[in-house]
């Protein structure tokens, strides 16, 4: 299996397929590269597709440290350098969006051509001045405690909330398999950090073209989050997927792929 070794010894599992302009896909918290299984075959026909597991996730090293969005962004920067990527389109789903915004904050836009943000808020936390946040402190604390006592049970309740329609047992099984690869200690640590990061100060300075993809039938992230991002990110456009919840790339994969493909093509003109 292909792995990239980072400076601190962490090994990141990745797939590098196709040729052309690079597309780096970053999954959500507890998830893995496998969730983009409907994207890789499509995009590798026209682009160089890099699909990786973040540290602690999927098949990557289960390190005891480094489980912050800021460190995941530094890991992404190392990946970009190791693979010598230029004019890369960054696609981030859920927490992956935070990784992108933190990357841009730390490293700038020099190597980035465009970004695709899939179903995420500027912050997941319900700050006093940010009522559309997904979590308050009791909800976040409760989830962190349940991870420590009943990780699989929590996931069996959480994963169906990511989809508009009922998830068939066969589909749920592979998702549980992937998400339980994350040790409980890692799962609670990164849940906390990604839930309280506040990227609102970063948004106005983003100048690269940005595509915002949101499901109309969201149970986790309100569509208002996409509208807020569109207002805050100068060069952005919002695409709503009417029959999707948190995973339009799985729920409406054909349309999602075409919309993203068209956006990437237009951003490279």
Automatic annotation (TrEMBL):
Tagged with keyword Hydrolase: yes
Molecular functions (GO terms)? hydrolase activity
What the entry lists under SUPFAM superfamilies is as follows: alpha/beta-Hydrolases (SSF53474)
Q: Which UniProt keywords apply?
A: Hydrolase
Identify one Pfam family in the record. Abhydrolase_1
Q: Which residues form the AB hydrolase-1 domain?
A: 21-132, 196-252
InterPro entries per record: AB_hydrolase_1 (IPR000073), AB_hydrolase_fold (IPR029058), AB_hydrolase_sf (IPR050266)
- GO CC entries: membrane
The molecule here is called AB hydrolase superfamily protein
Identify the species of origin. Halobacillus halophilus (strain ATCC 35676 / DSM 2266 / JCM 20832 / KCTC 3685 / LMG 17431 / NBRC 102448 / NCIMB 2269) (Sporosarcina halophila)
